[in-house]
Input
Amino acid sequence: MSLLKKEREVVKKMNGFLRTYRRKDHNEGFVHEVAAVCVLTGKILLQNGAETYRVEDTMNRIANSFAVHDAQSFVTPTGIIFSIENHDVTKLVRISHRGTNLRKVTQVNTLSRRVAQGEVAINELQRELVRIDNSTVAYSDSMQILAAAVASSCFLLMFLGKWQDLFPAFIAGGAGQAGMIYFHKLAKVKFFSEFMSSIIIGMIALASVKLGFGLEMNKIIIGAVMPLVPGVPITNAVRDIMAGDLVAGLSKSAEAGLTAFAIGIGVTAAIVLG
Amino acid sequence: MSLILIIAIQSITSYLATCGFGIIFNIPFKPLLHGGLIGMVAWLIYFFLFQYSGNDFVATFAASLVIAIMSQIFARVCKNPVILYSVSGIIPLVPGGLTYSVMSRAVDNNYDIAIYFAEKVFVLSGAIAMGLIFAEVIYQIFEKVKHHTPKKVTTRLFVSRK
Output
């Protein structure tokens, strides 16, 4: 009885892999399961804005903690290749939509910590990952719009703008984020929603200056487009290149450049046409 | 405007702006508040260093180094990923306004000014990235000194070892 209890403890410690390894013919199936779980982890992390090196690192660590020691992973922004050498297991996942939802990254990180300590069995890990992937817990749309509006008007003051421009920047920033959310739901093309919302921002800034609410149009626009411009992607791209993820870094910087292009054209179009 | 008023306005606005971005990035509530603190400290360093020296490369580098060190500390203490803290912290520093200026000048046919701004964007984002990487290296050296154990040489710069 006590032996069984001890065995159960051991099984719990090693993520339940002993139980599966007991019969030889289950080994291959187990390795496949590990590969599937690792790839799902990588997919969630990459889709929600984790860094490239962290995705690779987390996948290898999870494989390691299930006693699969010869795993290799290659991550680019558009896909993951994961392979376990001695078992002829290779998985490829295509990533088409990428956003930033750091809550999911945090949840996966907590989960992988528990896995490294040996507390999670593989089927439980699978279940948890699917739950995280499907969860829709987030700050509400109105909250995000308010946050963007507040951030825009704060940026105006940080860049030493005039107090009178506070209100136009607030409105323009909120409207830009609202347009971003709306157009993103309308069509899943990122550049289209960025273009449309920067047109909205440009029109609001122009109108506020023409009607006499605002003084410096340039400062209002810069404050209001801050939630849209790809400052963080550019920084991450340079950082990826410095860390040796050359493919990821170059493709991210291309994407960031196109985003900046969409915003620049949108705002200029609004000003020229207005 | 007196100095205290400037400091107060800059700290409040940078805290709020950083937290606002955290909400857009969907950061959970507690790291959001910590990230706001990091963003505030970094922005104050950047602001006064920039006003004092007039060189934005140095100011950006110093601020991003501070961000990265603070994010490492917060991440180790609270057991969260580093990106949660560093992303919202670097938001005020990233050359977003400049990026916009590049494209609006280029669309406006002012190519020489656009290229000037683009160079600046590249240099500033390089400064931020260097600050982040330096902090990682400092952390690794610190760990090495603390434990005094010979370790395998890491080929990847970012893989932190525990």
Q: What stands out?
A: Chain B has six helices and no strands. Helices of chain B lie at 3-24, 29-53, 56-78, 82-90, 96-107, 111-147.
